Amino acid sequence: MDPKTYNLAIVGYGGMGSYHVQLIEPIERLTVAGVFDIVDYRKELAAAKGLQTYDSLEAVLSDDKVDIVLIATPNDVHKTIAIQALRAGKHVVCEKPVTVSSSELLEIMETAKETNRVFMVHQNRRWDEDFLIIQDLIAQKKIGEVFRVESRVQGANGIPGDWRQLKAYGGGMLLDWGVHLLDQLLLLTGSRIDSVAAELSFILGTEVDDGFTSHIRFKDGLTAVIEVGTTNFVKLPRWYVKGTEGTTVIRDWDLSGETVAINPDVAKVEPTPIQAGQGLTKTMAPPSEESTLRSPIEKAQSTKASFYDNLVSVIEGAAEPLVKNEEVLRVLRLIETIFEAAEKRAVLKDLEL
Ligand code: NAD
């Protein structure tokens, strides 16, 4: 007998909901059963692509052929839809940020346990090539012990003019992009967090943050700067990582960048003073070409399953989820800590994180 193909219904057919159709297409064991959106025009777009449409969420949930519900609505309604879908016996995939608070996620996790259904969050940027490269770099100690990670995304286009500008929908850049960068950061070290300081920005005058900078110190000594900006006409590198034996920069999504590391075969060369502005400096002279190795960014060696292949294996009890709900919960708790640190303008310490 052929292995089962699972039917997935999409709830919320906007930018991301429609993108999931492309993500699912190459997955052998998955098919899109249909689409529900509260806006008729969005359903018409889905129908024009040959997709079945549903008249209501109830119609999705009472359709026995639907095995999985994908939630790609604005963030404020993720929790309610997830709990209804789990109670209707469906497995659930939810877009990020999973919910707008950790207590909401705990409710979902409880319901998933009670109903014995899979609930998985689409933290897709765990599969981003730039992140996988940094993960390899740290794990393989290519620049020695890493003691500083700076991870940034910066744009010049403000917050897209929709629900992302509104608090009631779970808008704001900390929830929108912060959730990706913080999720990645927590996968780079096994250490607990020691302290958090943060600043939110409101340059655009929206009621939600249009960006933020957070400083996170881990108990093992690693420090991180995580930053999101939407008013950056010139951006800083996507990744800047310092280790005891070198520095790596990945400038952009195209993976431009380099690693400059100590050449173990050459004794350290005394720096030659350089003219810098109106003075001379040895301290700020570049590392000598003889005693360092300069290499381009190499592709990551990751062989992990795709998000959706993993989902099928998790549903069948054949694999552990590549995105664990406890990990997602920790990220939400960190986001809550960042909001608190920014509001209090304080360095928050002695954290249970
Ligand atoms: P969007 O505004 O383009 O689409 C949201 C859609 O949901 C709209 O068509 C809207 O009519 C519909 N909708 C709203 N409330 C609904 C409800 N109660 N039931 C059914 N449909 C409803 O937004 P988007 O950019 O597609 O974002 C959707 C979700 O996907 C958000 O949670 C967002 O954070 C996430 N997202 C994730 C990524 C990623 O890389 N993982 C990228 C973009 C968006």
Model description:
- The chain has 353 residues and is of the alpha/beta class.
- The protein folds into 3 domains: 6-122, 3-Layer(aba) Sandwich (Rossmann fold); 125-246 and 297-353, Dihydrodipicolinate Reductase, domain 2; 257-296, no CATH class.
- The chain is built from 9 helices and 16 strands.
- The chain has helices at residues 15-24, 40-48, 57-61, 78-87, 102-115, 129-139, 173-186, 307-315, 325-344; strands spanning 6-11, 30-36, 68-71, 91-95, 119-122, 146-154, 193-201, 211-218, 223-229, 239-243, 246-250, 257-262, 274-276, 279-281, 292-296, 348-349.
- The strands form 3 sheets. The chain has a 9-stranded mixed β-sheet with strand order 15-12-11-10-6-9-8-7-16. Strands 2-1-3-4-5 form a 5-stranded parallel β-sheet, with helices on both faces. A two-stranded antiparallel sheet has the order 13-14.
- Helix 4 packs parallel to helix 5.
- The chain starts with 5 loop residues before the first strand and ends with a strand.
- The model has no long low-confidence stretch (mean pLDDT 96).
- Bound molecules: nicotinamide-adenine-dinucleotide.
Remind me, CATH topology of the largest domain? Dihydrodipicolinate Reductase, domain 2
Portion of residues in helices?
25-40%
Q: Can you list the strand order of the major beta sheet?
A: 15-12-11-10-6-9-8-7-16
Q: What's the architecture of the largest domain in CATH terms?
A: 2-Layer Sandwich
Instruction: Name the bound molecules.
Output: nicotinamide-adenine-dinucleotide
Mean pLDDT value: 96
Q: Name the shape in a single word.
A: globular
What summary fits the major beta sheet?
9 strands, mixed
User: Helix count, per DSSP?
Assistant: 9
Secondary-structure element series: EHEHHEHEHEHEHEEEEEEEEEHHE
Strand content: 15-25%
Indicate how many domains the architecture comprises.
3
The first-level CATH class of the largest domain is given as Alpha Beta
Name given to the CATH homologous superfamily of the largest domain: Dihydrodipicolinate Reductase, domain 2
Number of strands: 16
| Rg | 23 Å
InterPro entries: Gfo/Idh/MocA-like_OxRdtase_N, Gfo/Idh/MocA_oxidoreduct, GFO_IDH_MocA-like_dom, NAD(P)-bd_dom_sf
Organism: Paenibacillus stellifer
Keywords: Oxidoreductase
Protein name: Dehydrogenase
